[in-house]
Amino acid sequence: MSLSLLSSLPSLPALAATDLVEPARGGGQLVIAALVGIAVIVVLITLVKLHPFLALTLGALAVGVVDWQNMSDVVTSFSTGFGSTASGVGLLIALGAMFAKLLADSGGADEIVDTIVGKASPRMLPWAMALVGAIIGLPMFFEIGLVLLMPVIYLVARRAQVSLITVGIPALAGLSAMHGFVPPHPGPLTAIQYTHADLGLTLGLGVLVAIPTVIVAGPLFGSFAGRYVDVPAPDTFDSGTAERGTHQQRPSFGATIFSVLLPVVLMLAKSVCDIVWDDNADQLLRKIFDVLGNPPVALLIAVLVGLVTLGSNGARMGRDQLQKVMESSLPPIAGIVMIVCAGGGFKQVLIDTGIGTQLAQWADKANISVILLAWVLAVLIRLATGSATIATITASSLIVDLLPGMDNWQVSLVVLAVGAGSVFFSHVNDAGFWLVKEYFGMSVGQTIKTWSAMETVLSVAGLVFVFVLDVILKLLT
Fold first, then answer.
1. Is there a contact between 9 and 369 (Cβ–Cβ < 8 Å)?
2. Cβ-contact 270, 294 below 8 angstroms
3. Which end of the chain is more exposed for a tag (fewer CB within 10 A), N or C?
4. 149, 106, 103: which is closest to 245 by C-alpha?
5. Pair 470, 410: CB distance under 8 Å
């Protein structure tokens, strides 16, 4: 990127000093404290193999020690951030996990896959797989979506007689883009809470960014990568995949798509109403969608509707089966909730030191694009820790004080820039790297040439399209 282009990028808005925490120490000491805290997290996760929850907690304490703060105040800050994140994000993650489990166990995910892939011509298969990955990735965590899609990827690659990479990379691009850009995934959801971005607006803009990004990193890059990395599909899951759905009633495609998109539509409708009518408007429709489009309510409605459309009516599940599905959905996400909440504690410690104010002042003087800075910070943390969620949490923590004075849509674009940076170049310190390597039966070198390269393309393309949206919205406002 040329210097002339950098100079034209959106710069930091005027700082609202009254909203920022004034640094108690010198700028140099604050930066050192923040770097030490991040370094502690990186070392404990990557070298010591400590659970990220403990690493984030110890990293927050390290910030306080290096900054010579009263440790009681540090603990209070951490607890406050932990609690506020749990109340704001924990409920949404739990509801999202319930819906995803219901979608998987009812056969709804299989119905989406079979319907879309079954109607695609051989040439359109990579595009169909990207669409499937995006739809499945909308409500599901990346790892769950990958496990669900692998049998389909194997079967499609074998029937089309193409490399596993040609159809697999587009599906992974769809999954990864949803994970990085679109709530209610933990990363973007946490960034939205930290930055006080509008969830519905961020969701809508996230979809707009994700669509062209998935096209570039999925079908286009996948076709290219499949030519130089030829991975034949194994026979694993062949008979099971071919017989999927023949012994179990499944919800219809229409009912499944309706259930998946319902919370998205409700949240977007709320944002549209907020744009059309101001806060004081006495409009019944706005009042209705203020409730229905509230994220916890929208997801709760999706779960309740899904119990009927996907469960009892779709898959003919009984009450006992539905109860087991709901119960089994929560234990796997307990660790994720604790990591996200500990990230909230770490964020609050950083804010209370005033490091965000210091960075904001420096960035203002240097005229650095907030969008670019947010992306770079997320990239660095992603490369160091291997975790997209940790990258999102930490980068959001560092840039939260750079946002006062920005319009709602600008804050949403900053969140999307963080999301784009959080998926940059997955490598050996990322659990997803090894998951893809083993499922695709590739060497480390092949995995880097395909999966890691795709993630990099996804990240850079995402940033480019965020800037494109920024230019368009500036022209329209």
1. yes
2. yes
3. C
4. 106
5. yes
In the block, tokens 């907030």 appear at 370
**Cα–Cα distance between 255 and 263 in angstroms, integer?**
14
Hey, what are 293's tokens? 């489009």
CA distance 57 to 230: 44
Residue 49 structure tokens: 């193999």
C-beta neighbour count of 428 within 10 angstroms: 13
Q: Is the peptide bond before 186 cis (omega within 30 degrees of 0)?
A: no
Segments making up each domain of the chain, as ranges: 22-476
Q: pTM of the full predicted structure?
A: 0.72
Alpha carbons 162 and 115: distance in angstroms, whole number: 20
Which has more confidence, 219 or 431? 219
Phi/psi of residue 369, nearest 5 degrees = -65, 125
How many Å separate Cα 77 from the centre of its chain? 26
The DSSP secondary structure of 223-242, one letter per residue, reads HHHHHH---PPPSTTHHHHH
The beta-carbon contacts of 403-407 under 8 Å, at least 24 apart in sequence, are 403/195, 403/196, 403/370, 404/13, 404/15, 404/16, 404/19, 404/20, 405/13, 405/14, 405/15, 405/16, 406/13, 406/370, 407/477
Other CB atoms within 10 Å distance of the CB of residue 335: 12
User: Using one digit for the tens of pLDDT, what is the confidence trace for 294-335?
Assistant: 878 888 999 999 999 999 888 889 999 999 999 988 888 888
